[in-house]
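#structure-requests
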Amino acid sequence: MADLDALRARWSHALDRSRGTQTPDPAPFPGPAPAPDPYAENLLARWAEPRRRYHTLDHLTAVLDHVDVLEEAADDPDLVRLAAWFHDAVYLPDRSENEERSARLAERALPEAGLSPAATAEVARLVRLTVTHAPAADDPNGQVLCDADLAVLASPADAYAAYTTAVREEYAFVPADAFREGRAAVLRQLLDLPRLFHTPHGTRQWETPARHNLTTELDLLTG
């Protein structure tokens, strides 16, 4: 069960630090920045929607934990943390534009919350990057967010099994044969990537177990 108070504190900390390290852009508005609490509550409510099974508060917590592990590889880990909060804030399993809608939510909310235009644009860019999980070699923020989001693939066997079960539950509306076909295609696409992880830690610690888990799942689906 996710610790809501801890998540609220993590949101406030990342937002406050991001507002305190603004680029030279003009302030979004005069006077003190708004309190972070209403924005946290809106995001927590989104992540707690009852239709979710994998893209839940537990997933948000896990991604934030992984960003903490990888933060030294990022140029601005607090903007990466804000992107983690938004990256699945809009999520409907039968829609293909979730990342775009999540990025647009960030573009609306973050200026109101006191972020500069440049910082807001960076968060939205990172959210959109989770469509492909293919950050450039010179994109440390993107590498950290993408590695943190995909770190679940390197989970121990029991945790990976729980992940695949939750994914299936989110797609319960898809018939079994169609789900197996679609999921197998996703697994093959991932396995065909030259690398799943881009940070030094991700490459060293997560690449091999992730490929093992993906290969095992694919064999179970197609065997």
